Amino acid sequence: MADLLIRNARLVNEGREFEADLLVARGRIDKIASSIEGVRAKVEIDAQGQWLVPGMIDDQVHFREPGAEHKGNIASESRAAVAGGITSFMDMPNTDPPTLTTAALADKKRRAAASSQANYGFHFGVSRDNLDTIAALDPREVAGVKVFMGASTGNMLVDDPQVLERLFIYCPTILLAHCEHTPSILANEALWRERHGEFIPAAAHPLIRDADACYRSSSLAVDMARRFGTRLHVLHLTTARELALFAPGPVSNKHITAEVCVHHLLFDDSDYAQLGHLIKCNPAIKTRADRDALRQALAGDVIDVIGTDHAPHTLEEKRRVYGRAPSGLPLVQHALPAALELVGEGVLSLTQVVDKTSHAVARLFAIRERGFLREGYWADLALVERLAQPRPVADDPILSRCGWTPFQHRHLRHVVRTTVVSGQLAWHQGQVQPRCQGLPLMFDR
Question: Theoretical Cys-Cys bridge with 89: which of 58, 75, 314, 410, CB 3.0 to 4.6 Å?
């Protein structure tokens, strides 16, 4: 007997939309056909024409474990992820302790194997003194290597030109870069402190972490990648100016790629008036002109993938004064429905959203047998309903441990009805399915 049969779905996959049934057996997509008859399955779902898409693969999350579990942990944040149609995630290294050693990497993998409801991978961090460890990494064991280009986070600040040069030369796999120029940011913040002391307004955040700080760092990273032939992926672009650094085209043809995050596509600097520090993040949400340029670049294949940079903090932390309010916001539960709003706005087609949230991510990271609706591939699926009328996000129970969402005042037209992770029901009928266990992502490198 098969595990799952989904009937009467509208599949969205590899540039096509078509009506079909889909059969899951032994965790994998066993058959896709216009009609599947004479087969019994443990679970049968009548999709009633809802979209069946590959689950979103999120290339950038901060699930806070180990070290900051009061904000979230792998169990809580992966539950929120599957509720939003995210079936796989790649977690960032700035935990406590940071993922700077193979022992820390192995510890994270053990934790995820015990508690994650989504498939998982982990990025390795860079410090001034672990380059030999990075050079010896097996590219199949890490999602990528993450460098903070002159942007300090704990002991992971990397601003020494010689260290950066060695990293770009010897990194054995894809190098992910957070690009902000710290000296510029510190100088800007000092000016605002002279005027406002501790009470810097939230709306000053994109003026402190401004477009120049982003461009100076991004242009350095791209220049180094070109000089040394590094496989570079620049994270969370936020400015129109940075877009000139990247070329349009299919992700499989590039050795320098770029990501944009959902919140930088949906919010702009006018939203600080209502949301304040709730949307304080690094790099900062900037102007509407920047937002619109990012959208256009995404549609034109200059930007390659959509991620979340999910980074939960408690409301108590977010309500502090500017200098003590941490940057980051929780996004995984509503990221895919929010990205689908771009279809209704005419920014992207439905097939483009699927490409940017799944196909292109799988290609970019060389993820084995995931990211597509193909027979023989792992069954990572999201069944999405387009509603006749938008529904308020405030009606949703928030599954992230931090208990809030930046979309709380918004209405979304799309809702994830069912999520399947490695052939297992992970989210169905408004409930997390407790028996689902994610698997480690495998990388063909």
Answer: 58
Closest alpha carbon to 71 in 308, 395, 330, 336: 330
Mean pLDDT of 3-20: 98
Q: Answer yes or no: is 257 within a domain.
A: yes
Instruction: Pull the structure tokens for residue 327.
Output: 């940057």
431-432 and 2-13 strand pairing: unpaired
How do beta strands 2-13 and 16-25 pair?
A: antiparallel
CB atoms within 10 A of CB 378: 28
SS3 of residue 134 by DSSP: helix
Mean pLDDT on 93-104: 97
Give the relative orientation of helices 211-228 and 182-196 as an angle to the nearest 10 degrees.
170
Q: Residues 60, 108: one domain?
A: yes
pLDDT score of 154: 59
pLDDT digits (tens, 9 = 90+) for 310-363: 999 999 999 999 999 999 999 999 999 999 999 999 999 999 999 999 999 999
- Section 118-133 average pLDDT: 97
Task: Break the chain down into helix, strand, coil percent, rounded to 5.
Answer: 35, 25, 40
Q: Return the exposure string of 338-374: e unless at least 16 CB atoms fall within 10 Å of the residue's CB, then b.
A: bbbbbbeeebbebbbbbbbbbbbbbbbbebeebbbbe
In a domain, 314, yes or no: yes
Q: What is the pLDDT of residue 158?
A: 84
- Mean pLDDT confidence for 388-409: 98
Neighbours of 207 (CB within 10 A): 17
**Residue labelled with tokens 């499989």:** 252
Please give the Cα distance from 355 to 349 (Å, whole number).
10
| Alpha-carbon gap, residue 73 to 27, rounded angstroms | 26
From the list 444, 398, 437, 336, the residue with the least C-alpha distance to 119 is 437
Confidence (pLDDT) at 421: 99
338 with 273, same domain: the answer is yes
Range of the domain at 308: 54-364
Q: Is the pLDDT of residue 157 over 80?
A: no
**CATH number for the domain that contains residue 40:** 2.30.40.10
pLDDT band at 55 (very low <50, low <70, confident <90, very high): very high
Give the pTM: 0.98
From CA 221, how far away is CA 232, in angstroms rounded? 8
Contact 334, 340 (CB under 8 A): no
